[in-house]
Amino acid sequence: MYMMDDSLVVIVKREQSEQKEFLAVLSSKKEKSEEMFLSSISQRFTSIRLDTDICNKLSIPTAEPVTLTFGRNNIPVRVMPIQETDELVLPLHVSEQLCLPDWDCNLAVSYDEDSKTLMIGPVIGLVTELRETHNNVNFGNIHDFCNELDSYCKRHGYYFFVCQLSMYHKDAIEGYVKHDDAWVKTTVPHPDVIHNRIHSRKREQSPIYQAFLSCLQEQHIPIFNDRFLHKWEVHDILQKHEYLHPYLPETYLLNDKQTLENMLQRHQCLFLKPVHGSQGQRIYRVMLDDEKIYMHESAMPQVGESQSFDTVNSLFYTLKARISKTAYIVQACVPLLEVDDRPLDFRLLCHKDSYNQWRVSSYVARVSAKGTFVSNLAQGGDRHKILEVLQPHFDKNTSLHVKKLMTELAIEVASIIAIEAGGHFAELGVDIALDPSGKPWLLEINTKPSKHEESSKNNFIRPSAKAVIDHCIYLAKPTK
């Protein structure tokens, strides 16, 4: 037994069989009235057994019924104190109704005196896409991250599972729970909180996802990062705040040729980005040089591989044929700090913590691959420590000041997005660039930040995994 905040972590066991108990009660029927017999069965089959010391420390009553919960599943029980150290023993039918696993596990227990509720967990669910084979499952590019989430949950006595939309139903849920170093498919309870890591925007617009959200709303189960935010939506929110204008590159929707021409005349260098794009894909850089217009695509391996145009008109219609009906923004380039002639930017991963306050949980400096203009790691960029790349450009004090300024900007924009975008957002990847003077420029905000942007090592739980679970605990706390 060990203490976690206002809870204690205990060994939760399920009795393997209730048959012997039932026969013991049945054999005594001859000596009892029918009423006493039914009362005996009822009392026996709604009793759970809990370490006496834990009952005392959590002030759990043993003379009156309490509600036992595991996630949103619950059952009325009576608590019988026992001498077995650190154990909570549940009858088989109680364990099955709560959807506890078949194996013994260490879980946190806490007691709320006002509602007379004994809580196991909390239960945290993550919904994503997964790939199932005959004897294996893979969670795609967040598989390692899920392992870290699970390790952190086990350390604290929380119950964690992963599922996809087709496994989540109003009456029953299947999920993958890690046991003995393997992800096991089993029945799981309705969780106390859900973290959305679905990677497909199209999937989030589907009827099955909308039904899933309706189910959560009906059961009052909180979900965070419930949807993608697109680039123009984010810009539209931020540009309403005049004090942020100095940090926002001039940006418009690419609706017509005139917008492209006006922006090119003002800035000579532009980025064209898909409104719903991610990971540096399908981005174009357009440059005006000596009355000639050059266009480079992020998918091209070398900057030298470009198209040239004599007029904006020919550029626009080439673009129109290439991007078809895909919505794009046109954004002014800003002069960037470089490392070995390669563009540099920064990913600040922001999370709401266990107190519902925004903080930066990790910093990554990203240097683009040689010959490219996007720094995303998915496009071959390199990861560096932030001060490692700042100090060749600035002295130590200035480097620390610049890092602090980026931190403040990231937290400010995360706070604004969380308030004004609707829904509940608790994890945002904020991309910031620096010009040679050290001034920060806000490039992009990601609602499903890639987990490749952070360092991940064996037996290491990255800060963002801890931050996600800590905020889940905040959301899972019962409101009074």
Account of the protein in words:
The chain is an alpha+beta fold and 480 residues long. The protein has four domains: 7-34 and 44-120, Barwin-like endoglucanases, CATH 2.40.40; 123-224, Rossmann fold (3-Layer(aba) Sandwich); 250-332, no CATH class; 336-476, ATP-grasp fold, B domain (D-amino Acid Aminotransferase, Chain A, domain 1). Helices cover 29% and strands 31% of the residues. A seven-stranded mixed β-barrel has the order 2-6-3-5-4-8-7. It has a six-stranded antiparallel sheet with strand order 17-22-18-19-20-21, with helices on both faces. Strands 23, 24, 25, 26, 27 and 28 form a six-stranded antiparallel sheet that branches. Helix 1 (19-27) runs antiparallel to helix 2 and helix 5 packs across helix 13 (463-476). The two termini are 27 Å apart.
The CATH architecture classification of the largest domain is 2-Layer Sandwich
CATH superfamily of the largest domain: ATP-grasp fold, B domain
Q: Could you name the CATH class of the largest domain?
A: Alpha Beta
Note the main sheet: 7 strands, mixed, barrel
When the domains are counted, the total is 4
Q: What's the shape?
A: elongated
Number of strands: 28
Q: Tell me the helix content.
A: 25-40%
The radius of gyration is 28 Å
- Individual helix count: 13
Q: Average pLDDT across residues?
A: 88
**Strand portion:** 25-35%
Spans of at least 5 consecutive residues whose pLDDT stays below 50 are 19-31
Main structural class: alpha+beta
